[in-house]
Write a structure and sequence with these properties.
The structure is a homodimer.
Chain A (H helix, E strand, L loop, with lengths): L2 H8 L10 E3 L6 E3 L5 E11 L10 H19 L2 E11 L4 H17 L3 E9 L3 E13 L2 E2 L12 E5 L4 H9 L7 H12 L5 H6 L6 E4 L4 H12 L2 E5 H5 L11 H10 L6 E5 L4 H11 L3 E8 L4 E4 L18
Parallel strand pairs in A: 4-5, 10-13
Antiparallel strand pairs in A: 1-2, 3-6, 4-6, 6-7, 8-11, 8-12, 9-11, 10-12
Helix pairs in contact in A: 2-3, 4-5
């Protein structure tokens, strides 16, 4: 099977041109027709074997995750998904692997009406690079995109869904921790099949003052939001400890805090909103079908503190994931 | 040096927001503000060490080439470059390498006013994935983008610049052929520092009926254009044999034909235009500062023939490059 046959068989689909797509796969460039009065939101993520996923991961889960981590960036910006490109470096043309990968990829793409419009296929160490395109309205000259830089002192800090379970699964798969089989299964779903919070991102436009997605762990990611917004944060330890989905009794409160703050691969949204918007935030979560949890508030004092039930700061140094540190 | 410091030091530049870029590096998504009345042209190319370039290649040349091959796709579509994303997998954070790579990358980006707006950096086998964005006007509801599918029987076939030299250099670097030092140096420039024909692509809008860029060799690439346009082609052997820049006497006519037809890495434009447009095509080439050569014409008979000076077809099977064949 040659390169062009591979593309034709697994990635080129005889679908009608979708909304916003003027020309899809097969020419030197794809062509998007932007909706008047919108900006185009763009993000790109690269997944490398042995670094972002295990060599024996289910290819269907990998196809899902490769697109999910990109859609998560559109969600964080409040952008509606339109299209994506896929560049794929493969050690060999393994038909079973390609079929599974394409199945996982297109199931998620179809759920978000996000069209594959082009890309590249080459031979080499397994590497998946997806670039996504979404639209955000501009109203009265003002973009409705959610940025990291809009948070204000006094705003509440919120997260969607559950945090820490993906890292728990990673520790178990790396042999650092032994988990009961059913706990591992639940946590592994979170690691391998994250759910991009696209509907929530759209619902939060006009409500959230700042937003970002959580990929490298809450402590480090929040640090970027605080830096962009020039403020600090006080987090509540009890709210953080409630965030892992895993009900396993083998997890101490310290374990939970460490997984939540220093974890990664959560692909939930972190966002800020004024206290007056609490009902609106809960309504947005309900509309999107995802729980939202208030985890603290933004303060003028720079840096990040985790406070116990008595309002006293807990000691602790929480490191985010860094590929080169 | 951590991941974010690496991005800050080598890839984030304190430039004013460029035309069309509403938000650059540093948030979950970048934001482009499309010019009203345009479509967005998008292309993505992935370069893998050992496959697309030698491990010891000059990083500055590599930075140039990684962007050049993408700009070449915009050129083939007649799109004006606006912005690009860069996803980079690196075995280590080598400062000298990064500085050289960034120098080559930004020199070409600046020459085309193409802004780096985001991307990803991770650890892994060296892999460079760039996605470029350009604009094409839509006039009276009709896109001015150049496609592969618009060629008509009777049109002339043209190529820009010179062909075959990049493959000649590759053969020498792989030890398959010995070249005089000055011949290798000239040919190697073509392999390592291709010039994307952006100005020519823009000049050909409204003149060319179809266009594509040459990356896998003329014979195979032309096959895609013929398939998209449902026609065949008769090429003139003498025109083809004149295409390598290399004046070396060690190259026979057969060598030249083989390098031109079965080569690759040329990044020149292949395009069609009605015979009535010959003067306009030559004027477009002159405006863009690149020679254009008429190499044959499009015919109704499917397939590709190379004709000698007497109009007789030459025997020969010309294979294009395929990563998985």
């Amino acid at each position: 099977m040659g390169e062009f046959e591979l593309i034709r068989r697994y990635f080129q689909r005889p679908t009608a041109p979708a909304s916003g797509v003027a020309l899809g796969i097969g020419d030197d460039c794809a062509l998007l027709q932007p909706t008047p009065g919108t900006q185009m939101a763009i993000s790109s993520d690269m997944l490398v074997e042995g670094r972002h996923f295990f060599p024996d991961v289910d290819p269907e889960a990998l196809g899902h995750k490769a697109l999910a981590v990109n859609l998560s960036d559109l969600a964080a910006s409040g952008a509606r998904p339109v299209a994506f490109t896929l560049a794929l470096s493969l050690p060999r043309a393994d038909e079973a692997w390609l079929a599974g990968f394409a199945r996982g990829l297109f199931a998620l793409a179809d759920a978000h009406q996000c069209t594959l419009i082009g890309g590249d296929t080459t031979k080499g160490p397994l590497n998946i690079c997806i670039t996504v395109f979404g639209e955000v309205p501009v109203e009265n000259g003002r973009s409705l995109a959610l940025l990291r830089s809009g948070a204000q002192v006094g705003d509440d800090l919120w997260v969607s869904g559950t945090l820490g379970d993906a890292r728990l699964a990673l520790h178990a798969l790396q042999g650092q921790r032994v988990l009961p089989a059913e706990v591992l299964q639940t946590a592994r779903q979170r690691l391998e099949r994250p759910t991009p919070r696209v509907a929530l991102g759209l619902s939060l436009r006009g409500i959230a003052t700042a937003a970002m997605d959580l990929s490298d762990g809450l402590a480090g990611d929040l640090g970027h939001l605080l830096q962009a917004s020039s403020c600090g944060a006080d987090l509540q330890a009890d709210a953080l400890a409630s965030l892992p989905a895993c009900p396993w009794k083998g997890l101490s409160t310290d374990d939970r805090l460490s997984l939540v703050l220093g974890g990664g691969d959560d692909y939930e949204l972190l966002f800020s909103a004024p206290p007056a918007q609490q009902a609106a935030v809960r309504a947005a979560g309900a509309t999107a079908g995802v729980p939202v949890t208030r985890i603290g508030r933004l303060v003028a004092t720079p840096g990040l503190r985790v406070l116990d039930a008595q309002g006293q700061p807990l000691p602790g140094h929480f490191q985010s994931y860094d590929h080169f540190a």
